Every structure is written in structure tokens, then in C-alpha cells.
Task: structure prediction
Amino acid sequence: MLSKNQAKNIRALHRKKERREQGLFLVEGEKIVAELLASNWRIEALYATSEFIDAYQTQLIAKNIDAVPCRAQTLASVGTLSSNNAALAVVQQAPAHIKTDASWVLALDNINDPGNLGSLLRIADWYGIQQLVCSPNTVELYNPKVINASKGSFLRVAVQQQALPEYFASLPADKPIYGAYLDGESIHRISPSKTSGVVLLGSEAHGISPELAAFVTHKITIPAFGAAESLNVGVAAAVICDNLRRLTS
Amino acid sequence: MLSKNQAKNIRALHRKKERREQGLFLVEGEKIVAELLASNWRIEALYATSEFIDAYQTQLIAKNIDAVPCRAQTLASVGTLSSNNAALAVVQQAPAHIKTDASWVLALDNINDPGNLGSLLRIADWYGIQQLVCSPNTVELYNPKVINASKGSFLRVAVQQQALPEYFASLPADKPIYGAYLDGESIHRISPSKTSGVVLLGSEAHGISPELAAFVTHKITIPAFGAAESLNVGVAAAVICDNLRRLTS
Result:
């Protein structure tokens, strides 16, 4: 059973301010909590159904986690998901746990939508890109919608917030920076770097901001065959990564 | 000003049953209503801010539409969007308005999430795919979340609901059917048809159902370079379409 105090503490973490002050965040649902248990992220508290606790007993013992048994209904009522018949974890914010190979990087300029950031984490993870660099006005990584949409990929992809002009200025001069535009060179025709690069994506509403354009070494575009005006930023990122990575597959 | 009766009629169209019985649905927001005005879909009623009415006066006169002026707050309160400072249209369901070239088709097996179906419409439209064939258990096209996520692409892509075994059986024997699996041939290595084909996508949870596997002529896979288990179905569709279409670009 969940105490009133525990319920209050979990609900507090729905709010960005509390997450920042406490350095904690929520991870919810069976698959993603199972992935969390297999990672080295620090779990402060775990609330789970007795079915989940039975199924993951070995991992819980190995990590010395004393899970609090709860009904599915309770998990849904204190968490952010509309239904959760498995588990909810309170986790320490600890991006430093991730050791990254930064040969390929996604740089994100002003991505506000949490679903899009989560989706970008999942796509980066699929394409073996272990580092995201986000402009300071990007949505917070620990927003529950970001974590949920990432489907566990937040465990493997490091996210760093930094002013992008400063980040780009710090890169070696020969690092290719691919900027996604609506009028660049077709990604079907470019000869991408086989070893490393940065893919820069702007917001759906505003694109890449003018002050960053000067850093872009390759203006690229996804060829259109029909009449849609644009693609969702996550979709665009996946198609670009697929083209940049295909030479090494 | 909106009458009580008009508000009631709009709110009724939030429900699938009412949409089906009345053969009507809602289209909301500036960009998508502007695209609607440029199409030949039939508008039954239009509610809009005076700014929108002023900006689109020419189109409204040309179509003989008597728009009802409303405040943005009213549009949001009767519609399905959390904010709408432009317009809301009540539109006739009329897929027959779309003339399609069915050389390329997306076939969808059991796609339940309205955001995913909307996203698939937008992706099909980008890649010049004018026909979707959906299994009967696919989410309804006229669900407001589908329409909104499609960003106007529902105006240009025809959606037909049909049992997929029946649809596949009706195709010419030499039509390639590309099925997206986690263990097929790499889409980076196949030599796709240059002229036509069907791309079959299953639900994120269950993949392509076994009874459809027999119709698949090419089992294909998006190569992974990292640790994510899967991609969102819309993201996967875009990457597959990009690879199938690149030979003709």
C-alpha cells in the first residue's frame, strides 16, 4: 500500500520545478521500468503490482530494491499515464551515468514538444547516435512525456543542454554539420561522412534559427514526391540518419 | 456568435457514432482549414474569427460560404483543440472526392493510435503515395486526432477500409508487397520496384498478423545501429518509403 506521503511525493514530480529541486524524475510502465532495472541508473523508490514484483524478483534482489506493492489503479492515479498495470519508479537524474561515443550527434534547436524529444531519443538510439545537444529552450529531458515517448532510449542516449553557437564553435573545423532545410541538397545525392558528424534540426514551426545557419557545412533536404508541406521533426531526423548511416550498413 | 444549437451540433461530432450517422466531421485550425478551402471537399458550416474571415474573404466568397464569426475562446471550447484562434469547419465525409494514382499503396494492419494514422497520412502525402488501405480494426479516419495529425494530408490521400486478405488477393500477381519486419532483408540492400508496390505495416504492439504474412513478397527491415528495440510505425513507414522511392529521385 502506498502512504499518503508517498503519493504526495510522486505527484510532486509531475512538476518541473520539483524535479529540478529534488534531482528526481518518474519512469512508468512495464517495459521501460524493466529496461531501467537492467541499467545502472539509481532507483530511489519503486512502486509496482505484485505481478511485476514476482516477475522481476531476481533484478530487485540484485539491486537491493524494496518495492512497494500497489494496485494498478493506484499506480495510474499517482502517475502520469492513463493506465499502468505494472510499475512506477522514482529515479535519480544522472546523465553522467551514460558513457557516450560522440562521433555522431543530434543537435536540436528549440524543440518544444515533449513527444518529439522522446521520439528523437528513440531514433538516435536506433541509429547508434549516443549524444544529443539541445539548445537551452528545448523541452526538459525529465518531463514524463519525454521519458515515456523515448521508450527507454533515455537510458542510453546522453542529453546535454548548451547554447548551440558555443557548442558548434567548440567542434573541430573539419566536423561536418548537416542542417535540415526545405531547400538544401537532396540527401539521396550527398556523399556523407562515414565516420562522424552532427545533424542539426530546428523546430517544426521555425526551422533552424538564422544565427545557427553560419555553422552549417551541408544544407540537406529530404526529397518530396507529393504535396505535404513538411515532415514531423522526428520523422525527418530518422530519414536523415538512415541516409547518413546507410554507407556503413 | 454561435447559437446553443450550433455548439451542440459541433460537440456531437466529437463522437464517432454521430460522425458516422451524420456523415460529417470537424476540421480545425488556421493552416488546415486554409488547405480545406483550397480543396473540393464540401464544407457544411464554417465558424471563424473575424481575422480569419477577413484573411480568407476571397475563398469564402468563391465557395459561397457564409462563415459564422466567433471568438477564439469559443472555437476552442466547442472544438477538440486546446487552442484555436482561427477556424473550425464542419465537413462532409467524402473520400470519393480524391482521385488517386494507386501505383504505390500503404496497407495498414490494425493501427489503433489516431496520432499514428494522421502521421502516416502526412508521410504518404510527402512520398507521393495517394492510397491507404486499412484493415477494418484501424482507427477511424475522421477522428479529430487523425485529421489534426495529418496536417491537411487527409485532403489528398484516399483511405479505404477493407479486409487486407481480400485486398491482397485482388492485386495482380506481380505486384510487390513489402512487409516491415524486424528480421527481413535490409532496405539498404534490396532493389525495389521503380514503378509500384504495396508497403504493409503492422501495429507497434503486434506487428503484421500471421494471416497476412503469406501475401508478403518481400520481408524488409530497417537496419539498426544502436540499442532501441523498435521504431514508431510512422517513423518506420517514412524510412521505408524513402528507401523505396530513392531510385526514382
In short: Residues 11 and 79 of chain B are 7 Å apart (CA to CA). The domain at 4-95 of chain B is CATH 3.30.1330.30 (60s Ribosomal Protein L30; Chain: A;). Chain B touches chain A at residues 119, 122-130, 151-153, 156, 186, 188, 222-232, 234-235, 238-239, 242-243, 245-246, 248-249 (CB under 8 Å).
